[in-house]
C-alpha cells in the first residue's frame, strides 16, 4: 500500500479537517457531497438510474433522494459498484478466503470481504487500494495515541482478516491479526510475546483478555484498548476499565464504513468529516434513531442514503471536547433485537428498546457478572445469568425488575425462564439482548 497516501490522509484528518462550528462542518459536507455525487452519477449505473429524475436538479441536499437498504444494495451489486466486479465472483472469493483463512487474494485489484450477517444475510464489501490508504490514514489519525512516528504494535482480534487490516506493516506501526477461531492458548502466548501497545477487538474478547490479565495468564500493558464489532455493554466496559485502569475507547465500524470513534473524553462521535448522517427517529424525545448514512469517500462501492439496521441514541449534552460532530450516548443494538410486548387491553403491540431491558437487568442487582436476555416469543423470555452471590436471590430481583418494566407499559407479563450463563467468546458476535421473533416492527414505539 502507498504509505505516502496513508500519511497524507492521516495529516488531513488529524490537523487539517478541523471544524469549530456545525455550520463550518455542514458547508464542508455539502462541497464534498456535490463532488462525490458527480462521480457516482457518472460511474455507477444503479445510482444513475435510481436518481435519474433528481440528477439535473441535484443541489447537494441528499435528504430529497430515496433510501436504500442492504437488500437493494445486494440485488443491484453488479451495477452499483464502479469496478465492474461480479457479485457471484466476489462472494465465492471472499467465502473461500474465510474457509482457507488466506485473505490476500484480490479481484481486479480490489479487496473484498463478507459482513458477519448478524441481520440474517451476509453482505459483500469492496475496497480499492486507494480507499484502503484513506481508511488506514483516517483510522490512525482518530485512534493512535500520540503521533504517527511513534512505535505501535496493534493487536487486532477479528472474525476474518482482510487486506485492509494488514496494510500498514512497517518499522514503526504494525498490525498483528489474531484470528478469533484460533485456540485461546495460542492467543495467550502471542499476546505475552508481542506486548501490544494497542488492543482492538470485540468487547466479549476484550473482557476475556481482562479475565486472563486478572488471573495472571497474560501480562500486557497496552496504552489504549478499543472496542469494535459488538455493542459495548456497561457491564463489560466497567470490568475492562477496572482491570486495565484506563478508559475503554470505542469504534463504530461496519461493512458500510468507519462511522464513529471516541474522543479523548471517551464520547463516541460520528465521523461526519467522511460520512453524512440523517436520522430516522424511533423515539425523537429520547433521541433514539436509525442512521441513514452517505459516505463521501467511498467510490468503488458507493454508499448513498443507506439505512443501517442499528439503533443509536444521541447525546443531549454537548461533549466537553468541543467537537461539532454528532455525539452518541450509546449504540443500543439492532432493529432485529427490539423486544415486543402485548397490550393488556387490546391486540396492539409495543416496542421495548434494548436499553430498557439493559437498564432493568443492571438495576436489579450489582451482583450480576454477565447476562444474556433472549425474547423467544411474545410471552417467553429466557434470561442467562452469571452472578457473584446467591443466584436464587438475584433471579428474584431480576424477575421483579422485568415484571415492573412490562407493567409500566401495561403489557401482558411474559414468562421469565432463568438459565445458566455458559456463553464463550467466539467468532460469532455476542449480543446480550437478542430477539428471536420472526417479525420485528419498529413503527409502534413506546
TrEMBL record:
InterPro entries referenced in this protein's UniProt entry, alphabetically: ANL_N_sf (IPR042099), CapK_Type1_Caps_Biosynth (IPR053158), CHP02304_F390_synth-rel (IPR012685)
NCBIfam families linked to this entry: aden_form_hyp
Protein name (record): Adenylate cyclase
Organism from which the protein derives: Metabacillus litoralis
